[in-house]
């Protein structure tokens, strides 16, 4: 079976919330408690099946830039799915979710499907953010909320796969340009960037910075 689509996913959220561990759990089905795994793991991939079609999830992980809030636009470019992760045992990471959401919405003008993920739900006795509160917040922003544990693997597959199902539906509806998820490199014309005639042609409604967003290339 040939891969029908490739979806670019990004992991966003504060440093230390478990983004790299979620990626490792999803792609390799293992948990590494020791900490230097962010370094070197910049993306992972796994093929899943949706409605009998093979879909490759290509997941980009920050290599620590999030601690300086210096994630570049190219990280967001072309992403159709995002897991916005916070740590249920650290309220400050939940407080920063709004800013992360704004970053995702402004840095890319492809319609990105964002799932809010409350990670480390295995540490119930250290919880600082209740499920109800996170759920209510997610609903107010139109996001789906799931609680995961990269340690026990609870809900990890679900978080990635549920997002992929939503993206898949949006591709089938024509809301997302199929060319963007074909997995093929962009054409020469598109790659020329700012001056290219096609820039912005397939722009989705939403914020578009003056001069055109590179995400539409
Ligand atoms: N108990 C528990 N610890 C976790 C979980 N996920 C990550 N961690 C720990 O949290 C720390 C930060 O994880 P990491 O994936 O590097 O976070 P990142 O900075 O967001 O990539 C590491 O020490 C992990 O062992 C989880 O689900 N449960
Ligand atoms: Mg990391």
Characterization of this structure:
It contains seven helices and six strands, in the order E-H-E-E-H-E-H-H-E-H-E-H-H. Residues about 185-215 have low confidence and may be disordered. A hairpin with a 2-residue loop joins strand 2 (about 45-50) and strand 3. Strands 2-3-1-4-5-6 form a six-stranded mixed sheet, with helices on both faces. With about 220 residues, it is α/β, with parallel strands linked by helices. The protein has one domain (about 5-200): Rossmann fold (3-Layer(aba) Sandwich). It has helices at about 20-30, 75, 90-95, 95-105, 130-140, 155-170, 190, and strands at about 5-10, 45-50, 55-60, 80-85, 115-120, 145. Helix content is about 30%, strand content about 20%. Magnesium ion binds next to helix 1.
List keywords for this structure.
single chain, 217 residues, alpha/beta, Rossmann fold, six-stranded mixed sheet, 7 helices, 6 strands, 28% helix, 20% strand, disordered C terminus, binds guanosine-5'-diphosphate, binds magnesium ion
């Amino acid at each position: 079976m040939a891969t029908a689509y490739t979806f670019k996913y990004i992991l966003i959220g504060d440093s230390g919330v478990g983004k790299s561990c979620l990626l490792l759990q999803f792609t390799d089905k293992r948990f590494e408690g020791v900490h230097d795994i962010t370094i070197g793991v910049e993306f992972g991939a796994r093929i899943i099946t949706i409605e009998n079609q093979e879909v490759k999830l290509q997941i980009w992980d920050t290599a620590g830039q999030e601690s300086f809030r210096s994630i570049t636009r190219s990280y967001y470019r072309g992403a159709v799915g995002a897991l916005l992760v916070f740590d249920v045992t650290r309220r400050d990471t939940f407080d920063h979710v709004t800013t992360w959401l704004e970053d995702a919405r402004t840095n890319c003008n492809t319609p990105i499907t964002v799932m809010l993920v409350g990670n480390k739900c295995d540490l119930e006795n250290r919880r600082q953010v209740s499920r109800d509160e996170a759920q209510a917040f997610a609903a107010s922003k139109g996001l789906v909320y799931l609680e995961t544990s990269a340690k026990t693997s609870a809900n990890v597959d679900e978080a990635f796969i549920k997002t992929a199902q939503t993206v898949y539906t949006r591709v089938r509806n024509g809301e997302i340009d199929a060319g963007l998820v074909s997995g093929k490199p962009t054409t020469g014309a598109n790659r020329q960037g700012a001056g290219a005639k096609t820039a912005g042609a397939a722009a989705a409604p939403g914020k578009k910075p003056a001069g055109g967003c590179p995400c539409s290339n």
